[in-house]
Amino acid sequence: MTHDNTTNDSAPRDPNFNPEAAADGVRLQKVLASAGVASRRVSEDLITSGRVRVNGKVVTELGRRVHPETDQVAVDNVAVQLDTTRRYLMLNKPVGVVSSMQDESGRPDLREFTDQFDERLFNVGRLDAQTSGLLILTNDGDLAHVLAHPSFGVSKTYIAKVEGRVSPQTIGQLQSGIELDDGPIHADRARILTTPPGGGYSMVELTLHSGRNRIVRRMLDAVGHPVVDLVRRQFGPLNLGTLQQGAVRELTRDELGQLLTVSRQAPTARPDTE
Predict the structure, then answer these.
(1) In this model, does residue 69 exceed pLDDT 90?
(2) Quick one: DSSP state of residue 251?
(3) 272 φ, ψ (degrees, to nearest 5)
(4) Three-class DSSP category at 131
(5) HSE on the CB side for 42, CA within 13 Å?
(6) Mean pLDDT along residues 112-139
(7) What is the pTM of this model?
(8) Residues 6 or more apart from 223 whose CB is under 8 A from it?
(9) Distance CA 219, CA 180 (A)
(10) Roughly what angle, to the nearest 10 degrees, separates helices 253-265 and 141-148?
(11) Residue 272, Cα to own-chain centre: how many angstroms?
(12) Which residue has better confidence, 48 or 274?
């Protein structure tokens, strides 16, 4: 995890902290070291410099004990996962694989990517069989709920190869909103990546937080540019990067911290529940 040298002297201390209630926990610096944040000595320095929060409150006492199963810890405002039984993977799902752990029709499913792990993993959200790209696999149900449910507003970015020459006016239409059979929809952001002068195929990038079925394909079809190829490149703070199609890897500590931070900061409800 990357740390800056900013302290949190102005952040609130926890006035409700009860030393007796926490006495049966684990020392904070030991928990940080076990989570791989830093050595125990460096973790002590992080605590005394006011860079560690427990349940949203700055902690500077080295004697503070926490319960890894229930307490939320952050360093430099980036969440730390204390539960070492949780696993978080990034998969670049290939075309032709359904987003299911067991497909009843016998089609290729996600088991080929999870069988190597002991934990019972599941996918966060879905990509249709003909869409490739970033899919998160985890055994963290709380995180999965926040990331997958559109009411929490976690954004996803797609790159689409579409038929025809996409105009700036079409991009404006996608961002201002269009009407589909199941209601209105708009992209949070949209831009043209490449467009041929004489027609052919264009490349466009769309970012949106809707979880409606095949929404990107339906949006582009509605504006007259059917999708030829579709890839999800980003999911929240995660980027597919150079991960090859069909490859799976563990999230880095920084990636996990960013993802957990998004999850913990998510509001309990949003008016937009697409």
Answers:
(1) no
(2) P
(3) -90, 110
(4) strand
(5) 12
(6) 93
(7) 0.82
(8) 170, 173, 174, 178
(9) 8
(10) 70
(11) 19
(12) 48
Locate 186 and state its tokens: 């708009």
Query: Is the separation of the CB atoms in 114 and 101 below 8 Å?
Result: yes
State the pLDDT confidence band at 169, using cuts at 50, 70 and 90. Answer: very high
- For residue 167, what are its two tokens? 């105009």
270 or 243, which is more confident: 243
d(CA 188, CA 176): 9
Q: How far apart are alpha carbons 180 and 46 in whole angstroms?
A: 51
Please tell me the distance from the alpha carbon of residue 245 to that of residue 253, in angstroms, as a whole number: 22
Domains of the chain: 19-80 (3.10.290.10), 88-151+238-262 (3.30.70.580), 155-235 (3.30.70.1560)
Tell me which residues are annotated as active site: 128
**Phi, psi of 136, rounded to the nearest 5 degrees:** -95, 135
Q: Does residue 146 surpass a pLDDT of 90?
A: no
* DSSP symbols for 60-115: --TT-EE-TTT--EEETTEEE---TT--EEEEEEPTT--S-SS-TT----THHHHT
DSSP sequence for 155-178: -EEEEEEEES---HHHHHHHHH-E
Count CB neighbours of 62 within 10 A: 12
